[in-house]
């Protein structure tokens, strides 16, 4: 694709990256078949190719029309287009450049800005999320069902606790921000599973920064990253082997720390090391002897696995968790169109509710088509989203490996 970006912009790091990405695109259209919003809406501007043209036009002319924002906001950033692209176009990188430029060139409506700021000021902080769940418990019965179903509620306290440190091998486990409040059993299950493998998981606090980053608060996101690195660095220096992340969305963000802080002379090297040590649990377990786990979890209950977009397209781990679960004796049923997004996509389910619910309905229909006993997934956003509509229990797959949470035939 030929470009004519203004020299002043092309000379910047963002402009140089955008120019290189745009030139890779041959506008073949193979990405459109994998795009959830294009499949749903049939509008070229709601496809990766269409959005690339919108971003290109804005960067070349400087015109930031509201139509551009509408179609960019509809993007889930699921990155299925990147997996499908034969030319290796880094759509997500170009998208973030375009979105940030759009935010600088054209102010959002006041209410839109207020909602996004409220999300940034609430969701990354567990204590604030906890207060929110208490409030929603009070007001939930008073609301219409379509709003009631979207409100988060904290689960009852889990019966079993975090195992005591007792192994020489240690890894950090990112607790996250929303997950410790809405689904604390996930991280506890991970700690118990790793304990049985001879690995102590040390809790690592902090929001990964993804929510701020994807809401175009880039400086705020980098501040989260720097604070996290400072908080985790002593444990990494003491020999922690890896930084395990049970939420694939957060895992994808940590993989980008090295790139996003590459220009920071004080944090570039540390950020690169954090990215190199970031691991999804399936990556660790695939390298370990899981005989003890296999003996405890050889069950034949039919399970539908929903692979989050971040697991498939950002972390490039499509099929790995499924292979692990099958090797451990679980009975996974086939799922139609497993590459399609469930519609959660971070704050997308809040900011683009109608589209998100349509995607959710289609995803749940495919997941439940062969009557599974439960649905398993690998990201807190998908976990909460699927629970709104699924007629069977939804669990994080690591919970299935914990004897206290494993399904029975």
Summary of the model, kept short:
The protein has 24 helices and 8 strands.
Number of strands: 8
* Global Rg: 21 Å
Major sheet characteristics: 4 strands, parallel
If classified by CATH, what would the architecture of the domain at 290-401 be?
3-Layer(aba) Sandwich
- Arithmetic mean pLDDT: 91
Largest sheet: spatial strand order: 2-1-3-4
In DSSP terms (H or I, runs of 4 or more residues), the helix count works out at: 24
Low-pLDDT sequence parts: none
Distance between the termini: 55 Å
Q: Rough shape?
A: globular
CATH topology descriptor of the domain at 290-401:
Rossmann fold
Q: What's the CATH class label of the domain at 290-401?
A: Alpha Beta
Strand content: 5-15%
Structural class: alpha/beta
Quaternary structure classification: single chain
């Amino acid at each position: 694709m030929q470009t004519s970006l203004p020299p002043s912009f092309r000379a910047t790091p963002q402009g140089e990256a955008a120019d290189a990405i745009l030139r890779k695109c041959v506008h073949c259209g193979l990405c459109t078949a994998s795009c959830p919003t294009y499949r749903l809406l049939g509008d070229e501007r709601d496809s990766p190719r269409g959005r690339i043209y919108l971003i290109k036009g804005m960067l070349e002319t400087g015109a930031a029309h509201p139509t551009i924002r509408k179609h960019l906001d509809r993007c889930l950033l699921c990155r299925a287009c990147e997996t499908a692209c034969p030319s290796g176009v880094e759509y997500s990188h170009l998208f973030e450049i375009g979105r940030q430029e759009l935010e600088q060139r054209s102010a959002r409506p006041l209410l839109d800005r207020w909602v996004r700021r409220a999300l940034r000021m609430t969701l990354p902080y567990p204590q604030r999320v906890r207060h929110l769940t208490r409030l929603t418990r009070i007001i939930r019965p008073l609301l219409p069902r379509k709003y009631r179903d979207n409100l988060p509620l904290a689960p009852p306290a889990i019966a079993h606790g975090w195992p005591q440190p007792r192994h020489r091998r240690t890894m950090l486990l990112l607790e996250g921000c929303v997950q410790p409040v809405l689904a604390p059993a996930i991280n506890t299950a991970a700690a118990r599973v790793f304990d049985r493998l001879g690995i102590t998981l040390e809790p690592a606090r902090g929001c990964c920064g993804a929510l701020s980053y994807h809401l175009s608060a880039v400086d705020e996101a980098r501040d989260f990253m720097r604070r996290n690195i400072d908080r985790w660095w002593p444990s990494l220096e003491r020999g922690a082997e890896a930084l395990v992340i049970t939420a694939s969305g957060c895992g994808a963000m940590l993989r980008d720390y090295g790139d996003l802080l590459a220009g920071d002379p004080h944090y570039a090297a540390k950020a690169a090391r954090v990215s190199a040590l970031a691991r999804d649990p399936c990556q660790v377990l695939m390298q370990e002897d899981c005989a003890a786990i296999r003996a405890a979890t050889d069950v034949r209950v039919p399970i539908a696995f929903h692979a989050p977009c971040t697991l498939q397209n950002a972390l490039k781990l499509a099929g790995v968790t499924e292979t692990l679960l099958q090797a451990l004796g679980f009975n996974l049923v086939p799922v139609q169109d497993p590459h399609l997004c469930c519609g959660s996509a971070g704050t997308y389910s809040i900011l683009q509710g109608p589209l998100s619910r349509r995607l959710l309905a289609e995803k749940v229909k495919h997941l439940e088509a062969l009557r599974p006993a439960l649905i398993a997934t690998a990201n807190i956003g998908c976990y909460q989203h699927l629970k709104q509509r699924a007629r069977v229990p939804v669990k994080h797959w690591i919970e299935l490996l914990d004897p206290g949470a494993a399904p029975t035939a």
